[in-house]
Amino acid sequence: MNNHEEYQNWIEKRTSFFDAGEWILPSVKDRWSNREPANFAWDNFDAAERLISKNPAYYVYTLVEDNNTAWIRKGFHYNNRQAYFISKREVPLYDEKGILYWKPGSFL
């Protein structure tokens, strides 16, 4: 697979992930960014945890940085976390590492 195909594959998986969820948007003060898809991301851990404790059927995904690469992983993760995504429905992750969110030089 060449670099362009690899990039397209990565973008398609990430886009599919966000298209498949029924995302709960955080308030502006609890938001990680105002740019899509980061506007779905909860920056405030306490606010995300309160929402989940009131709605245990929701699904949590954590944006985790690992060696300068960010992955979306299922569940609450605390080490190296960047943000949380919360959905009303489960979104499958097709790779045990999670969904690649960004990597060095990705421009995203």
Description:
There is one protein chain. This protein has one domain (3-102). The longest helix is centred in the N-terminal third of the chain and has 18 residues, at 3-20. The protein has a 4-stranded antiparallel beta sheet. The chain has helices at 3-20, 45-54, and strands at 59-66, 69-74, 81-87, 99-102. It is of the alpha+beta class and 108 residues long. 26% of the residues lie in helices and 23% in strands. The radius of gyration is 14 Å and the shape is globular.
Key traits:
single chain; about 110 residues; alpha+beta; four-stranded antiparallel β-sheet
In the residues, how many domains can be counted?
1
- Radius of gyration using CA atoms only: 14 Å
Tally of contiguous helical segments: 2
User: Roughly how much helix do the residues carry, as a percent range?
Assistant: 25-40%
What is the structural class? alpha+beta
H and E order: HHEEEE
Low-confidence stretches: none
The dominant shape is: globular
Q: Tell me the fraction of residues in β-strands, as a range.
A: 15-25%
Number of strands: 4
Q: Widest sheet: strand order? A: 3-1-2-4
Rounded mean pLDDT is: 87
Q: Please describe the biggest sheet, giving its number of strands, its sense, and whether it closes into a barrel.
A: 4 strands, antiparallel
